[in-house]
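tokens incoming
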């Protein structure tokens, strides 16, 4: 079992920055991928970014590429999402998640790939 707790959400003006954190506890392995998803109001949950726990390979949704950066601190079992140049359309509940079977996949970009989820943190970007 893996427990995930997100933090760092809040209200920010367009053009501003926020850094989200996701602390993992429980059983974690280097083969895992940690991902960030978001769910805008009235829309489906969508992939944002992911990082392989071992090796640090990263990939992003096109909508956030160049503005968001995912990183990890292995010693703290924590994954971060640095969000810069925020736009009103980035407003959403942001979730972190773990794919424990990532070794089977080239990339983990579907909700169905992930096994454990955090409770979410709200990010609101005002115009």
């Amino acid at each position: 079992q893996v427990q995930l707790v997100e933090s760092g959400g809040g209200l920010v003006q367009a053009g501003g920055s926020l850094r989200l954190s996701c602390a993992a506890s429980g059983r974690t392995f280097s083969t895992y991928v940690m991902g960030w998803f978001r769910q805008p109001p009235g829309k489906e949950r969508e992939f944002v970014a992911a990082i392989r726990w071992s090796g640090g390979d990263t990939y992003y949704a096109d909508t956030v590429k160049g503005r968001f950066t995912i990183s990890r601190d292995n010693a703290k079992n924590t994954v971060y999402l640095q969000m810069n140049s925020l736009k009103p359309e980035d407003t959403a509940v942001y979730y972190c998640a773990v794919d424990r079977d990532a070794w089977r996949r080239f990339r983990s970009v579907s909700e169905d790939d992930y096994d454990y989820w955090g409770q979410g943190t709200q990010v609101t970007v005002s115009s």
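note: The chain is about 0% helix and 50% strand.
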